[in-house]
Amino acid sequence: MSDTVSQNGTGPQPPSSSSWTIEDSEDLYRIRGWGDPYFGINSAGHITVSPQGDRGGSLDLYELVEALKKRNLELPLLLRFSDILEDRIERLNACFAKAIARYNYPGVYRGVFPVKCNQQRHIIEDLVRFGNPYHFGLEAGSKPELLIALASLKTPDSLLICNGYKDRGYIETAMLATRLGQHPIIVLEQPEEVELVISVSQQLGIKPVVGVRAKLSAKGIGRWGGSSGDRAKFGLTIPEIITAVDQLRQANLLDSLQLLHYHIGSQISCISAIKDAIREASQIYVELAQLGAKMQYLDVGGGLGVDYDGSKTNFYASKNYNMQNYANDIVAEVKEACDEKQQAVPTLISESGRAIASHHSLLIFNVLGSSDAPSGIPEVGPEKEHLILRNLRETYDSITPETYQEAYHDAVQFKDEATSIFSFGYLSLRERAKAEQLYWACCRKIYDIVRQQADVPTELEVLEKTLASMYYANLSIFRSAPDSWAIEQLFPILPIHRLNEEPSLRGTLADLTCDSDGKIDRFIDRLQSKSILELHPLKPGEPYYLGMFLVGAYQEIMGNLHNLFGDTNAVHIHLTPNGYEIEHLVKGDTMTEVLEYVEYNAKDLLENVRKATEAALQTGKISIEESQRLLQNYEQSLRSYTYLA
Ligand SMILES: *Cc1c(COP(=O)(O)O)cnc(C)c1O
């Protein structure tokens, strides 16, 4: 898999400084921006994790990974820090408590966790436990999620918000949950659900608490902007809400309507979009109360963003507000609207998933090798060289800070010509190799000049990407970071050690899949994003570990089995006074398990290979030793991890 393992940095190098410090690394990888208060760098140049923020101890991530490897936990490895999850819940509740105090809001906050964000049992169990002091509830977006929520939620006074498309079975189950002491709220997402709820209520003799999801005209922005507006997939338009009110009134159930919900999309990067939505929703809330509904809850959905690049801007990988601003704006706007119409304020609900779950998980993977673009300049032989080669050499010699741009165009043109001459049979394979080597030499020389310029012409930005080293990463993007592939989401990625050493190479990451999309070539940066990541030259015989951070929301469940790379190993780490404890260890899939997903039976497969081996033995095509070796390898593989050892 690895071409040449680059040892001495043949790729382009950033301006070198001999006195690289961990502060330089902090700055380069923007750790304070996205990692505060959970991640930092220690004097050994290793990433540290402080799962309780500034209130608790910290762990050396590199040492933790080494210790886990000694317990036979192979990479890639997903680390989940339950203390971070707890800290996120505390923070969110503290922000709302602070806002409620600041604006003298005569109501409370009762958050819920949207199960779809991470359905893993250990995580939901942790969330329920950590949420207990705050009466934190759960939100279900589908029938299977309702089953999870119903069985997991045991917190007094917490809410069970029932969203998503519903059939009679869903509604019955949700309503009957009342009998168990739960507080389910059935949120009408479709006009058809109104009659269904009325009918189930009459049949069971249960008066449900019902909510309505409004299609706001205030739009979210960015990737999930389509979650609101008239053409959104979910929710009722204003005329449909009025119809629902009339239907409920007729069925004597108008007092069941107690909640207004909206969700304008995930990762809202701009505070103004949040303000617009809450302003519009507050008015709808007040109006519904005046129409006779017994309004008690306002559920603002998700959307609270995560600052993946640490830039604190309205770039899609960031957000231009913090959690406290978010809580303040919601509390203040609702209070103002209610005061104006002399309406009692609602219990506030938010369904923040990303903001709660992202930080607690990170993926550690190793680099298997790297390859660089061809380097060096081919020798001039005794014979006269082909014209195209002479042209390329001349171009190379002509490169100066004044001419580099023109020289670049020439180099590209000559290289294209070389390829086409080759295709017509007028250039030998050896000559073509020389032409390509010369082309790369031109690119490097030009790049060295370009790097010193303040204003880089855009076409030359391509150079940086072209010359970058390729680092082969032991992971599948499709399994572990599907959003990086599907929607170009940015996650912070960086080495977890050697951070006191200058990362002298620039690289992109290629994953294990045989898919050309299986790569990462967009990374967080100061402004927008960059196409290369600063990395260290690999040292022979030494592992190089990278961490992908903030992956606790959505990535696990949306990951797929492309090329049959299965679930990664996962460990749940909890900080103790003496260090840490492994609370749970969830072994990743074996090959037998991934093969079962596609309906293969490991025993049958092995039997097929055994029969073929037997037949080959009979005809003398394989020796007995070879046959044993083959079968042993096959059997052992079936039991082992799908990633490379
Ligand atoms: C996905 C979703 C959420 C969670 O959104 P985040 O941005 O992750 O907080 C909340 N509510 C609904 C209705 C959703 O569909």
Automatic annotation (TrEMBL):
It is an enzyme of class 4 (lyase). Transmembrane segments: none annotated. The modification N6-(pyridoxal phosphate)lysine is found at K116. Its EC number is 4.1.1.19. Residues 591-644 form the Arginine decarboxylase C-terminal helical domain. Keywords: Decarboxylase, Lyase, Magnesium, Metal-binding, Polyamine biosynthesis, Pyridoxal phosphate, Spermidine biosynthesis. Pathway: Amine and polyamine biosynthesis; agmatine biosynthesis; agmatine from L-arginine: step 1/1. PANTHER family: ARGININE DECARBOXYLASE, BIOSYNTHETIC ARGININE DECARBOXYLASE. Catalyzes the biosynthesis of agmatine from arginine. This is Biosynthetic arginine decarboxylase. It comes from Phormidium yuhuli AB48.
